[in-house]
Sequence to fold (333 residues):
Amino acid sequence: MKHFYSRGFPFHRGRRLRNNKNICDLVSETNLSVKDLVMPYFLREDNDETKISNMPGLKRFSIDELIIELEEIESLGIKTVAIFPKINEKKKDDQASESLNEDNLVCRSLRKIQKKCPNISVVCDLALDAYTTKGHDGVVDKSGVINNDQTIEILSNMAVLFATNGCKIVAPSDMMDGRVKIIRETLEKKNFKDTVILSYSSKFSSNFYSPFRDALGSKTNLGDSSKNTYQINFKNKREAIKESLEDQHEGADILMVKPAMYYLDIINELKNNTFCPIAAYQVSGEYSMIKYLSDKQIFNHRDVVLESLYCIKRAGADIIFTYFAKEVAKWLK
Fold:
């Protein structure tokens, strides 16, 4: 903290900078732009359910529906989206085989987006929870343990597959040890030198993911099982910073904190201690809390959404993943 010498009142009147809106905006320390926002989307097969019961106002998109949606958000200034597939249960197995199918839901959508919306950059999730019968982010062995090294081999091949089909940013969200290193080495070997790795480097074992798991179709598969052995204990701060520094060292281009609103201290700490851009994910539970309370008119929807995003930005986030991105883009425009 810089030394502060003040002659006190009336020489100091803080309200001078607050009384006039133009002056207040002029001295604003934090600014939010549509360029800061990433809109996440859930993908579905044509014959699958559209509705997401625990995320009011959102739905799953077929590939053709998504193209129409992307054309609209591009006109609002959003240039980057993240996609998450709901895989048919019949295609799931213990080895997440569908994740390496070159004609899976993600690959088909990437090819069509590249053709119809070439100016949109797509972030593809690298994790196995959408593809496995167990609902875990990694392969589960016979003893019930997540096999770290087998998982990262699959993830590195997924990264190449998605890059081949037009993905600009791969985002390992699995929290396996060493996965950024192996993914980076594999992308280099396959000549995908410009593919960006956005690492979910500080991903906490949070209670706020439940609506997302419903939308992804993995909640039933996971059952009562826990992800505590690979996601970070929410009681720990230094561990999260250490994990992020490891990922930076292994070749991550962008570091992610997830969730966002309850972890502003982690966002700020990373901003002050790394040189990578910092992303934050305002997760499904955070979205649903705001949306439910807004729908009940307990508080003003627009004001609370904007406050939440400005605070995430103020903490140090350069990029914000939020399900409110589309409507916020309209407000900012």
